[in-house]
Amino acid sequence: MTAPRRPPVVVVGVDGSAGSEAALRWAEDYSRATGAYLQIVTAWHWPTWYGAPVEAGIEPESDARAVAAKAVTGMSVPADMFRSVVEQGAAGNVLTHASHTADLLVVGRRGHGPLVGATLGSVSAYCAHHAHCPVVIVR
User: Fold this and answer.
1) How many domains does the chain have?
2) Residue 51 domain-assigned (yes or no)
3) Which residues form the domain of 102?
4) Domain for residue 54, yes or no?
5) Per-residue pLDDT for the chain (139 aa), expressed as one digit of tens each?
6) Looking at residue 25, which CATH number applies to its domain?
7) For 67, 69, 81, 120, which has the most beta carbons within 10 A of its beta carbon?
8) pTM of the model
């Protein structure tokens, strides 16, 4: 007797940018077409200034949780086919770590970083080079 196959796992990075929203929509379409399970990942970290953490009046974890909650509002796939994860760390590191157990990693072409006008963002480039599964970069 063969064991039941698990659905493919798709990790999608979300940061609230237009690029990550496009990546999430692409991943939803993929999930509906293939039955893939979505793991929606939002990373956060303490911003630094000259190497020292900047703490006055900011709450990056709370901000990340708000971004994650907004992203899953109105999802078009059933609730049992996705979960949202908020993790501390640099986005590229968090996403490539999640890619260890994924069948596919989906990211937007660029996000909120200082190089928003770049052809390819630093996180998407990092993921393309370091992920442990295939990567889709959505324009």
Assistant:
1) 1
2) yes
3) 9-138
4) yes
5) 676 678 999 999 999 999 999 999 999 999 999 999 999 999 998 876 666 666 666 788 999 999 999 999 989 999 999 999 999 999 999 999 999 999 999 999 965 554 444 445 789 999 999 999 999 999 8
6) 3.40.50.620
7) 67
8) 0.86
